[in-house]
Amino acid sequence: MRKLTSEQKFLLALRLCLAWVFLYAASHQVLVKGWSIAGFLNSTKTFHWFYGAIAHSSLVPLLTFLVEYGHLLIGLSLLVGLFVRVSAGFGIFLMLTYWTAHMDFPYIGGPLNFLIDEHIVYALVLGLLIVRRAGHIVGLDEWVAQRHLFDRVPLVHWASA
Fold it and tell me: Are residues 4 and 136 in contact, defined by beta-carbon separation less than 8 angstroms?
């Protein structure tokens, strides 16, 4: 086992903390019988014309499933460090979606957050994990890359590179 630099230890800590954020969210969604994304979508303010319409559409069961298990898969990916670039990309999309959904422009989630809240910070940290290849730090991305398992599949190779 190689010795980790201070930067690698910090990136690993960030990756594991965000894994916890996604896994904790998934635990409340997957384990709570009858949980639905509709309540969240129906309580939006700034873009209610968009989110409210989705809350009353036939897409609700599909979106509920995608959010529940999306959180779970993103969290597991970050936890074990496998395909971190892909999961972090989806995580950024979710965080930016939640950011817009929590807006009461220009406040986000309440009067104490002006334009920026934790969702933007999480999105930026997820971006950092992509750029710094955080899945290679005590993660399975490094193991997969060393085995050259996906060298002939460019997109999958990029995901673990």
Answer: no
| Token pair recorded at residue 30 | 């997957």
Domains in the chain: boundaries: 6-160
Per the DSSP assignment, residues forming a β-bridge with 108 are: 103
Residue 114 phi, psi dihedral angles, 5° rounding: -100, 105
- The model's pLDDT over 80-121, given as tens digits with 9 standing for 90+, comes to 999 999 999 999 999 999 999 988 888 888 888 999 999 999
Residue recorded with tokens 């230890």:
9
3-state DSSP of 39-88: HHHHCCCCCHHHHHHHHCCCCHHHHHHHHHHHHHHHHHHHHHCCCHHHHH
Cα–Cα distance for residue pair 92/70, rounded to 1 Å = 12
**38 and 101 Cβ atoms separated by less than 8 Å:** no
- The answer to whether 123 and 92 have CB atoms below 8 angstroms apart is yes
**What is the bridge-based pairing of β-strands 103-104 and 107-108?**
antiparallel
Q: Rounded to two decimals, what is the model's pTM?
A: 0.92
